Amino acid sequence: MCKKVKLLQGNEACVHGALYAGMKFFAGYPITPSTEIAEISSFMLPKVGGKFIQMEDEIASMAATIGASLTGLKSMTATSGPGFSLKQENIGYASLAEIPCVIVNVQRCGPSTGLPTSPAQGDLMQAKWGTHGDHPIIALSPTTVRDTFDLTVKAFNFSEKYRTPVILLLDEVIGHMREKVEMPEEDELEVYNRMKINIDKNDYKIYDQSTLVPPIANFSDGYRYHVTGLMHDETGFPTNSTKQTQLLMDRLMKKIDKNLDDILIYEEYKVDDCEELFITFGCMSRCTKDAVDTLRDKGIKAGLFTIKTVWPFPEEKVNMLSKNVQNIYVPELNYGQMLLEVKRAAHKECNVIGINKYNGDIITPDEVIDKVMEVVKCQVAL
Q1: Does the keyword Oxidoreductase apply (predicted)?
Q2: Which of 55, 99, 121, 193 could form a cystine bridge with 94, CB 3.0-4.6 A?
């Protein structure tokens, strides 16, 4: 039986993936280059019994997404750079209150209003550190249109499994690119649904410290609990206890750190014998892969490590790779954000070199190749 094939834009694939995962609520505010996600959600969600609402701004959109999730609906919002900045306070709230939700950020060139229709990858660090205080976060970055579909499903799965907001970090290139996509069958991809509560209503604790990820009861299911952005005890009520605060913060971090084998997603291409390794993410993966093939034709052993779970960062894997290569190159559309993480993880095992653009243009395969040839030529001369 032939699978259904569709020509999809990246933003469109995001909505299809969200619906496949069971999204039933979307709140957003239109902003380039993410607007198609809201438009398509407004058209498709009502057809499956879901709800779409355009809020007055990005702050309210994030708040509505949190509220809908508390009622048991798989919920998503989408935005771009300036809107992502506005969502940060409520992203922190969702992190501390452990409310599952998906936040899509289709990155554009910034800061401020920047270049609204041009590609960039400048929100990488904001995805991790944008909201104040220590907090857990998962952020995924797709490289193709089909990848966008799959990682949107993964984002919903992770958000429900670990009771945490998950950021889907697209970029303008992936969001607006159109490709032929072979649509997965109904049961082909794993879809993780919220656990049902089978606890006596008098014994239920929404933030039970005896487990890394306590089950969450939906509002209106008859379980009484409190939700707050303050530090809280097992019942959800605010506390000033330093002991309770440390227990809560340790559990929030451990539920991610102890599940890295499940959360970390990456791809390796010709890395087994490589001497010149590229580490990249998002739209830069494809043109870098082309550069790897060309460099191989020139006799240079190049390889590519594409990071799809950008947070938490795959530190141990990068460190292991750095021990076996001469140089690591990090092509990215920013001033050098992933470069800093790669340098930290490599522990000076090899040279780490940035290949950067931050003017709204993409980095071409030829530019990647030229940089490698320049470095290799200099090292041979030495």
Answers
A1: yes
A2: 99
